[in-house]
Amino acid sequence: MYVPFDEMPKDARIWVYQADRPFDEQEKTWIISKLVAFCNQWNTHGAQMPSSFDLKFDQFIILSVDESQLGASGCSIDSSVRIMREIEVKLNINLLDSGKVAYLEGENVRVAFLPDIKKHVVEGSLQSNSKMFNPSVSKIADLNDQWLIEANKSWLKKYFAN
Question: What is the DSSP letter of 157?
Fold first, then answer.
């Protein structure tokens, strides 16, 4: 069952999906409609799960489930991946490829695919103190202090070693 994101508990589980480009207004409206419908029917072994989502920076979909009473099963997680794949296909975006890094350049989100990270460092758009998005956060509370981290405090630090 859909619950507004700001009403989800801070320890609710999350999955962060980063797009390779920003969503436009029409796409955001469609994504919201699609995900509200998905959350309203999302279940595990036939039992409804309190779930939600948020769109951040017009480029991230954060899917959340309150597992305090009932954990997400493998089948329910598979169904969430299917909805993300459907969004990918409909909008011609890349959400599920984990081979990309998103970071802030000023106020703008930039995305570097793994083979191009060194190029972003050399051109100066990705610097050691750049804020990068940590896709491995797992709880809503993590969004406050662990989602945006300095590149030199992540696995990217090897690109800045002197």
Answer: G
In three-state secondary structure terms, 12 is coil
CA atoms of 132 and 115, how far apart (whole Å): 17
**How many Å separate Cα 147 from the centre of its chain?**
10
Lowest mean pLDDT across 22-31, 70-79, 128-137: 70-79
Distance (Å, whole) CA 133 – CA 94:
16
Q: Structure pTM? A: 0.90
Claim to verify: residue 74 and residue 117 sit in the same structural domain: no
The answer to whether residues 22 and 87 belong to one domain is: yes
Find the Cα–Cα–Cα–Cα dihedral 142, 101, 20, 59, rounded to 10°: 20
What CA–CA distance (Å, rounded) separates 2 from 35? 9
**Domain span holding position 38:** 5-91
Query: Six-digit token pair at 91?
Result: 């909008």
pLDDT per residue as tens digits for the range 19-36: 999 999 999 999 999 999
The pLDDT score that the predictor gives to residue 44 is 66
Burial of 106 (0-12, 13-18, 19+ CB in 10 A): exposed
